[in-house]
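Researcher: Please predict.
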Amino acid sequence: MSEIISTGKDSALIIKHLPIFPLKTVLFPDGPLSLKIFEPRYLDMLTQCEKSGTGFGVCLIKEGNETGQAASIHSVGTMAQITFWEHRKDGLLGVSVRGERKFIIVNKTVENNELTVAEVELIKPESAQTVPEQFLPMVSVLEKIMASLQHPYITLEKKYDDACWVGSRLGELLPLSLIKKQQLLEMNEANARLAMLYDEMLTMGILSE
């Protein structure tokens, strides 16, 4: 079971024994994610999370796979809180989660069942910022993308005036490489993230100067 403790150094929050779900996707704060679970280690993990009311960590896989032997993962990930789950007709467990705070792994171990468990330090949330005028065309693109989506985005609270929220949603929805998505996640300044996305959107022809 995960345990949150506070350290004296800048009041950093440390979570001990956080179970990690390695995935070939990047989860951003406030972002939704739907999972289909069948491996016993993750079924057990989610059962424990549900009983204790705690979440788990999601990290992008660096080397390896989502199934089988524990994969090598990037050190910066995102806390995931379960928002819904159901036993599907195909026998799998369907789980919806929402991204919360980012974290950086301090150290980690792999248990006998190949579940990765880590001690992590929570990263300070980014300060709220309005979207600079130069990036407003990106908001218009995001609004069009969001209008075309169904579950789980249809019920997502929209924050089009929040630079961090806009950058996070574009980061997860645009057809970027996983490495670039991870780079965006690891950035801790909303306008810098928007600037990087702006350049990517120009390159893809989604925006024009």
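Model: DSSP finds five helices and eight strands in the chain.
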